[in-house]
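Morning!

As promised:
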Amino acid sequence: DGGITQSPKYLFRKEGQNVTLSCEQNLNHDAMYWYRQDPGQGLRLIYYSQIVNDFQKGDIAEGYSVSREKKESFPLTVTSAQKNPTAFYLCASSSGTGDYGYTFGSGTRLTVV
Amino acid sequence: DQQVKQNSPSLSVQEGRISILNCDYTNSMFDYFLWYKKYPAEGPTFLISISSIKDKNEDGRFTVFLNKSAKHLSLHIVPSQPGDSAVYFCAASDRNAGNMLTFGGGTRLMVKP
């Protein structure tokens, strides 16, 4: 079955540490996205990539970094520069064409302890 | 500047009644609209969509209405069920400018038994 997988589901990080969230898709989608959701808030775009080896900053990219070395993978690193990293992180992918919208992963909840 | 707005952060409805969730947009170039449903600690899932060439699309208990002149869309759920309790996001895209989605802030629907 095709889908998009985020891991881990829960992640705890000490202050000052970098941490990487995994996102893998086997849908053959060209485009991938990272969103952040805070309690009671909407989805805010962190980074997106529409093709391998290329990515763009979203609305709240500061303190985050990404890479897109393979079509299937779009890992997100939350760096120590991110002042308030505790949130629910969602990865999504889309074909980039057609009317299919986005397919989302099940999310990673990151907590800074 | 929010291009897609959901002005009601929450809505409470009795089981069996109609739920109406509203969404307004400002970008007249948007030509495709989607609704996503999200349960806590899960990724959003696609619910229903509508192209700007239509003014209504129906799928079972879910109907989306589009009023282009008012730049307004609404999602009707009839009859509402307790399992419909979730956060609903509307999203819009300008397909001529790629398939990036712009999301509203979400509306939390609570269906009371």
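The two ends of chain A are 36 Å apart (CA to CA).

Hope this helps with the figure draft.
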